[in-house]
Write a structure and sequence with these properties.
- This protein has one helix and 83 strands.
- It is an all-beta fold and 943 residues long.
- The termini are far apart.
């Protein structure tokens, strides 16, 4: 649009290429170029190129530029960049991988003026590209500005640049930032003629940065910065996504009347084995549904109760035309360029010529946008979305895990946002009465839809003793959890429904004086903070006992004004009920002493009356003890209702996938899904686009024995520290089972988290660089442990920090994000092993008995033989062998064993299961502490 053009081409073979550029059919002066295409850049050339750039930096009169851009963890080889200078020349910058999901693009300018940077991922522009930046001379005598924040940034992260006023004389300096959202600005005078400016945009879009000196624009002002959406790893983004399976359906030419107890795997020509879905085809035969990724013969194994069915395994052939190719997908429609808030916007995706692959759609922006994908049954689908707020949205369209041409798309959404009405109440909470040893302690909760027969509760004392609690059922699903303490200190109360912790559990309960307190000690939980129905009372609980005295403020904001009721149970807990007169997205804020409690504000979807959806019933849905990568089926009876049934499953990581829905006749539908992760999943079952009653349904995949109520944290690093000094704490996972341990530190500075495995569990250290309060959140199996989050008060002075990548340790991956309130979050995740010890003293720091591995006994077929893709098991008896940690390892001829599970059966006896994928001789090692048990290591031949 400014009279210039960018030309891009991809040579497919090495050799000399002649490029001719014509205008109006005529050759232009200097329009002939000869380019040599090579297969790869030689290492020596690369080193030479880097040295040349480095040398230029030291001698050039222009400031070097360094961009840090999020690319979502793509390979460095997939990322290319090109810079266009003011005179129309094209330069190739250096690209460095920061190992944290971002790349640094470094360039030494040779001209003054406005430059453009194009960044491509797999040949497609990334969000926000091209980026514009202004280059000035190092010493001009004028006020100049430089830095990445003048050209690009990521919303809810800090964007910074520097202003140089040396030798510019006297005058006032003013900075303004205008754009899609209000941005907080901070200026720091460096006392050396420079000033560092930092601003925090909270929504994606274009921002205009005005820098004036003595009421006049400096060179390059106003600047334009493109702010893109948050990286995928950020948890507090407003992102909507949906995945639609475009799978190949192949008949196996065999008839099976009942497929509920069947499961299947498919092995590719390269030997990779994956699960595939089974379904009944229209002709009555058994069929499989899968996404082919390789050309050639595949082997399909169909099992019933672990044994092959008749004629299994089956051989099928996949041709080249069936492999998913994102470059052949066509996307068009007005909804890819512009849209309107609170209206349905649409675009079309055509995949008929692209083979088979999963279609992934996501939309990021100022609000969530409900996405619907409607199959046109002609190889295309119509995608609709409905944002509720105006602004800039990023639309990602992927096919077979790759962006389609043009993706991601930047969409400008206009119109007016939803008018929001707010209702709030404030209640004073007095300090709880001090309890003593021998007195009855009580915790009151309302848990709708439960029965006392399915409830259980136990309390863990400060020294680790477990005792069952008394559960008294009151009226209307109200419960009183009672116990009599025998020790002073902080106790942990675990409350479960059908062996699964209720929302908010485990709870802290202090016997004796309550120390500390504050908003971070308040817990809120209940279905009313997740979902609700219009004109129906929606409820949740708030537990303030450990927070001390203070003001509790509750607000409900949404399309209509809600009615709020408050019930004080006089024991440190209270109940809240609210009724919404209109459906829509509501936000519930809970503050204690003017501070948000953990996870506040809560986003709640209030749905219209269920109508015919109330008629639907669910049958045969297994809710716990499910295995990863195995097909499961449940049925839905519509009981005469007429409409469309669909379902989707949401994994712990947030990945959302559609379930396979098949009409079985007689008002019954079969719904099939394959979980890909361990942890808590949610299954949404909808009728005519609306969730049925009790949807989403919670299911537990993998080890169901992971118990956050048995995890404890201790150490001074949870409560206090000094800048520049290491803060350390211990997480004791003994007897808690195997699960995912997640640690998050939120505070004034980004910290490097290091998690090391020790005998008792995991030792975590971090070093803060700025004083202030840090909140340390510890979750096990996705649930906060008792006392989490902890508040660590750090004193001392601040240290200068680098905004480089979040470090990666050898034990876990760490990353950081910056929130809109300016606080930095560091996060680490660690998949724990199961470890058990017997309780042998009155202290949590157990004195372990003398370890004698020679007394350990092991027996079972898994010590003698194993078969590919089948679980091998054996038992280990460690009674009379002292207290130590059981370690099991299986090492193969090429690869280690993919999975080993250890389960404590009680009385210091363990069951071990392992699965191997390849033939050959394996070595099985079993240690008690650091000593081999008798017979270890075993040599096992796998057939």
């Amino acid at each position: 649009e400014d009279g210039t053009y960018n030309l891009f081409y991809t040579p497919h073979n090495p050799g000399n290429y002649v490029i001719k550029i014509k205008f109006g059919g005529q050759d232009i002066p200097g329009g002939d170029f000869v380019v040599t295409g090579t297969t790869d850049l030689r290492a020596g050339d690369a080193d030479k190129y880097i040295r040349t750039q480095t040398e230029t930096v030291t001698t050039s009169q222009y400031r070097p530029v360094d961009f840090r851009l999020p690319v979502g963890g793509g390979k460095l080889s997939d990322i290319t960049a090109l810079i266009r200078t003011p005179t129309g020349k094209f330069h190739t910058p250096l690209i460095d991988d920061n190992q944290d999901g971002t790349v640094s693009i470094k360039y030494q300018p040779s001209e003054i003026g406005l430059h453009e940077l194009d960044v491509f991922y797999q040949g497609q522009p990334i969000a926000g590209s091209p980026f514009k930046f202004h280059v000035d001379q190092v010493q001009t005598g004028y006020v100049t500005a430089y830095g990445p924040g003048l050209s690009h940034g990521v919303c809810n992260e800090s964007c910074s640049f520097r202003i140089v006023t040396k030798d510019a004389g006297s005058g006032g300096l003013s900075v303004a930032v205008e754009g899609s959202s209000k941005a907080e600005i901070q200026c720091k005078d460096n006392k050396d003629g420079t000033c560092d400016v930092t601003y925090w945009p909270t929504a994606p879009g274009e921002y205009t940065i005005t820098v004036k000196f003595a009421d006049k624009h400096i060179v390059g002002s106003p600047f334009t910065a493109k702010i893109t959406g948050l990286p995928l790893s950020v948890e507090n983004r407003k992102r909507s996504q949906v995945m639609v399976g475009n799978q190949s359906e192949i008949s196996l030419r065999v008839t099976e009347m009942d497929i509920h107890d069947l499961n299947a795997t498919i092995r590719s020509p390269s030997g990779v084995e994956d699960v595939c879905l089974l379904k009944k085809l229209a002709n009555g035969s058994l069929g499989i549904s899968f996404i082919p990724k390789e050309i050639g013969d595949h082997l399909v194994n169909v099992y019933r109760d672990g044994k092959h069915i008749k004629n299994s395994p089956f051989r099928i052939h996949v041709g080249s035309s069936e492999i998913g190719d994102a470059s052949k997908v066509k996307v068009f429609g007005r909804g890819l360029k512009e849209g309107y808030a609170n209206q349905v916007n649409d675009f079309t995706v055509v995949t008929r010529d692209a083979g088979y692959g999963g279609l992934s759609l996501s939309i990021e922006g100022p609000s969530k946008a409900d996405i619907e994908c409607h199959d046109n049954e002609d190889g295309s689908c119509l995608v609709t979305y409905r944002p509720t707020e105006p602004g800039i949205y990023i639309v990602n369209v992927k096919f077979a895990d790759k962006h389609v041409p043009g993706s991601p798309f930047t969409v400008s959404v206009g119109g007016h946002g939803s008018s929001r009405l707010r209702e709030s109440i404030i209640r004073e909470r007095r300090a709880a009465d001090i309890t003593h040893i021998g007195s009855q302690c009580e915790l009151s909760l309302k848990i709708p839809g439960t029965s006392s027969f399915d409830m259980s509760a136990y309390v863990t004392s400060p020294t680790g003793r477990l005792e069952n609690c008394e559960i008294v059922e009151l009226d209307d699903c109200n419960y009183s959890i009672k116990f009599i303490p025998k020790e002073m200190g902080v106790h942990t109360v675990s409350v479960k429904h059908k062996d699964i912790h209720i929302p908010g559990s485990p709870f802290e309960f202090t016997v004796g004086p309550i120390l500390g307190g504050g908003a971070h000690k308040v817990r809120a939980s209940g279905n009313g903070l997740i979902r609700g129905e219009v004109h129906v009372t929606n409820e949740f609980n708030i537990y303030t006992r450990e927070a001390g005295a203070g003001g509790l403020a509750i607000a409900v904001e949404g399309p209509a004004k809600a009615e709020i009721d408050f019930f004080d149970r006089k024991d440190g807990s209270c109940g809240v009920a609210y009724v919404c007169p209109e459906p829509g997205d509501y936000q519930i804020s809970i503050k204690f002493n003017d501070e948000h409690i953990p996870e506040s504000p809560f986003n709640v979807s209030i749905v219209p009356p269920f109508g015919d959806a109330k008629k639907l019933t669910i049958h045969s849905l297994k809710t716990k003890g499910l295995d990863v990568n195995r097909q499961y089926t449940f049925t839905v009876n519509v009981n005469g209702a007429r409409g469309h049934v669909d379902a989707r499953i949401i994994a712990p990581s947030g990945v959302e996938e559609s379930c396979t829905v098949q009409d079985m006749g007689d008002d019954h539908y079969a719904i099939r899904f394959v979980p890909k992760e361990n942890g808590i999943h949610w299954i949404h079952v909808r009728f005519n686009g609306r969730d049925i009653p009790d949807s989403p349904f919670r299911i537990v995949v993998g080890q169901a024995n992971a118990d956050p109520g048995r995890v404890f944290a201790s150490g001074s690093g949870l409560y206090q520290g000094e800048t520049g000094q290491s803060c350390e704490f211990l997480i004791d996972t003994t007897n808690a089972g195997a699960g995912a341990l997640a640690v998050t530190v939120d505070g004034p500075s980004k910290v490097q988290l290091d998690c090391r495995e020790v005998t008792e569990g995991y030792r975590v250290t971090f070093t803060p660089t700025a004083p202030g309060d840090y909140l340390i959140s510890i979750k096990f199996a996705g649930i906060n442990i008792a006392g989490s989050p902890f508040k660590c008060t750090v004193g001392g002075i601040g240290f200068p920090t680098s905004r480089g990548g979040g470090g990666v340790t050898t034990t876990s991956s760490s990353s950081y994000v910056q929130r809109s309130d300016g606080k930095l979050t560091s996060h680490t995740r660690y998949d724990t092993i199961e470890r058990s010890t017997s309780y042998s003293s009155s202290s949590r720091n157990n004195n372990y008995a003398i370890v004698d591995a020679s007394r350990v006994r092991a027996h079972g077929d898994g010590l003698v033989r194993a078969y590919r893709n089948e679980k091998a098991t054996f038992t280990v008896d460690t009674r009379d062998s002292g207290n130590a940690m059981l370690m099991v390892g299986v090492f193969g001829p090429k690869y280690p064993c993919e999975e080993v599970f250890i389960k404590h059966l009680g009385n210091n006896q363990y069951n071990v299961q392992y699965t191997v994928r390849e033939k050959g001789e394996y070595m099985l090692i079993v240690k008690w502490g650091d000593q081999h048990i008798p017979g270890s290591p075993w040599h096992i031949e796998v057939v």
